[in-house]
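Lay summary. Proteins are chains of building blocks that fold into shapes, and those shapes determine what they do. In this project we predict the shape from the chain. Here is one chain we studied, written as its sequence of building blocks.
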Amino acid sequence: MSTILHVNVESLASSLDRAAKVMEALEHGKKVKQQEGIGFTNVASMLSLFTPKRWELIEVLRSSDAMSVKALATILNRNYKNVHTDVAALIEWGVLKRNDKNWVYVPYSELLFDIKLPTKKAA
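And here is the predicted shape, written in a compact code that computers can read:
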């Protein structure tokens, strides 16, 4: 498994173009580097997942071993239900995972963000 999670913000057309190039390379027998990633079509969508509270949660988990949601809520000094909601969202998007004890952890050593600015239109 990759230790890097790529988070992209780009237009749908750009994303589809990139996917088409990968598919074409595979059809021609070329090796394609596998990577794990999350794609968004705009910055607002990305920021709705990566809120400041969730960043704090990710930072705590990156500096610790896996832990229960209850322990995480205690460390963060936050309401359990709110932390549980944040953990569930981050698991759904693949940012966090659960181990065999059902504890949560960040399986990546890096989260790389690539935000493509919209094409500038002529004035």
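What the prediction tells us: DSSP finds five helices and five strands in the chain.
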